[in-house]
Amino acid sequence: MSTGMPNLTRLSEFNLLGLSSQPEDQKTLFVLFLIMYLVSVMGNMLIILAIHSDPQLQNPMYFFLSILFFADICYTTVIVPNILVNFLSETKTISYSDCLAQIYFFLVFGNMDSYLLAAMTIDCYVAICNPFHSITVMNHRCCALLLAAFTAFSYLHSLLHVLLVSRLTFCASNVIHHFFCDVNPILKLACSSTSVNGVIAMTEGLASVMALFGCIVISYLRILIAVLKIPSAAGKRKAFSTCSSQLTVVTLFYGSIRYVYFQPLSSYSVKDRIATVIYTVLTSMLNPFIYILRNKDMKQGLEKLISRIKSHMDRLSTAKANKICGPLLQSVGCGDVCTHAHSYTHTDYEKSLP
After folding, report:
1. Which of 14, 121, 235, 335 could cross-link with 330 by S-S, CB 3.0 to 4.6 Å?
2. What residue stretches are annotated with the G-protein coupled receptors family 1 profile domain (predicted)?
3. How would CATH label the architecture of 13-294?
């Protein structure tokens, strides 16, 4: 005798719907996401190297910025490689355990991003509003403690939400209307009650996001008031250039997060998937360009790094050429000619052009 109850089960795998169900779109999307991912990883790595190789960038703001870019690399790497594989696969599946792991690490690095953006904003506030106390307030010990606290909170927050998802049971459907495993699309598949998940998301999740966002808004208001009091136009421009890049990144990040997560679960749609692309892949790709274009110190640090890399490549090229042809020419008495010829590097050639 049927009881009329749904067939509750713990699924072994999920099917991902993806961004498009049209076969002709898959290769185009693969190329697009591959380019965005490579640009994101290389751009973020360049910024990290520029920060750690330039003594002038050894301060709290750029310390947090380097961690932010590292988190961005991890953030996109958690989801993009699997997305690329699915674009070229007929069956877009992910196992239950892999899905939970993806949710966990996606939330970890996403939360790290929000904490780091808040820390950078507070550091900017201290540097502009209390410049004589910035060294004592944001010292190395304080930065290390903040980073440890951010990491602990991010892991605990993510663990809470993954444990809440793992207790759910599902009906026959295992199709996730998304291109990777995220909390909201998973909750839509559950047959058991998701009220606890919803309450936690709208209390703990909203409280943590709004607390950070509130700190950011208050800090920027105080910064704006302080900048407007600066008498010289040059001083105002320098202060605005220091924080304008952060403000752009904060707007992109929090704007898309608000659109995706803080709305009724039933309204989750294709537009939310597009918004997710913005705050995951696109924001991570644009961040290095935003900081390079709008931050003079960062631009100079990157130029120094590129100059050092180019100089090192020239030396390697010269050494390799001497190693290959030096012994041969020296055997016929032409060692000096070889040395002179290969010391004329590609850089020297460019300088000789009119």
Report:
1. 335
2. 43-291
3. Up-down Bundle (1.20)
